[in-house]
Specification:
Layout: H1 22-35, H2 41-47, E1 48-49, H3 51-58, H4 63-70, H5 74-85, H6 98-110, E2 122-123, E3 142-147, H7 155-158, E4 172-174, H8 176-182, E5 189-193, E6 198-205, E7 213-217, E8 246-252
Parallel strand pairs: 1-2, 3-7, 4-6
Antiparallel strand pairs: 3-8, 5-6, 5-8
């Protein structure tokens, strides 16, 4: 089981927007909250600054545009906006960078959960969406997102203690549709190729993944070629390398004949 790209609010369904689209996801939710008249205007006027600039920033991010960019259904975007406006927090998605965290933080200010007072006033963060540098195309049609699995958060595992019973080796997780498209099955080793290099990893099929989206952990894969794993432009704020939006293709490994 993998960490979802974005946690849905409360105990609702888990939602995975396309990798690298956390900012527009947050902006669309914010716009929907404002449009529905669910923003906490009293709190905004008393304890925040920059609301009008924020409102103009999110205004273009309609639900229909968010669907095209994030891949999240319109009903889910509206449901998240309603739940968030009624007090349920939207937790940061796994692997979220500073920009995404700030964009989600705006929702707390918008709904009166910023824990602020009259002095100092808390500013809305004007976070612009930067589209992925490594775009998919016919040659590299799958979007690779990286993060950690739930078992990676087991403190006994992290500290080198006993191994979780659900922990498994590094693999590339595909949707059932993509596994069928490439003609691969669980456990089969494939080559994960990017524009800068490739590595080998066994397949795992995750029904929660949408077609065109793959997942690997942030830990470098074992085996030859691991040093050639995909790289992306770094975050200008954190100064870290992004792995969330690498474009990849899946290649079947040649069958090696064995002597009898």
């Amino acid at each position: 089981m993998t960490q979802p790209g974005v946690h849905a609010i409360g105990s609702g369904p888990r939602i995975r927007p396309n990798a690298g689209t956390g900012v527009p996801m947050a902006h669309a939710i914010g716009r929907e909250i404002i449009r529905a008249g669910l923003a906490d205007r009293e709190f905004i006027e008393r304890s925040t600054s920059g609301f009008e600039e924020y409102r103009r920033l999110v205004e273009p991010w309609t639900v229909s545009l968010a669907v095209k960019v994030t891949g999240v259904p319109a009903a889910a975007v509206r449901e998240l906006a309603q739940a968030c406006a009624h007090g349920e927090p939207l937790r940061p998605f796994d692997g979220a960078g500073p920009e995404e965290v700030r964009a989600l933080g705006n929702l707390s200010l918008l709904t009166g959960r910023g824990h602020g007072d009259r002095d100092p006033r808390m500013p809305f963060h004007l976070v612009e969406h930067a589209p992925p540098v490594d775009l998919t195309d016919e040659a590299y049609p799958v979007r690779l997102t990286r993060g950690r699995r739930l078992d990676s958060y087991n403190p006994r595992v992290v500290k080198g203690g006993s191994v979780s019973s659900v922990r498994r080796a590094e693999c590339v997780e595909l949707s059932p549709e993509d596994a069928e498209r490439y003609g691969v099955v669980v456990g089969e080793e494939v080559r994960v190729a990017t524009r800068r290099g490739s590595t080998a990893a066994p397949v795992w099929v995750d029904p929660a993944l949408r077609p065109g989206l793959a997942f690997m952990t942030s830990r470098p894969p074992d085996g030859p070629g691991a040093e050639q794993r995909a790289e992306r432009a770094g975050s200008p704020i954190a100064g870290t390398v992004e792995f969330e939006a690498a474009a990849i293709r899946i290649e079947k490994m040649p069958v090696v004949a064995t002597r009898r």
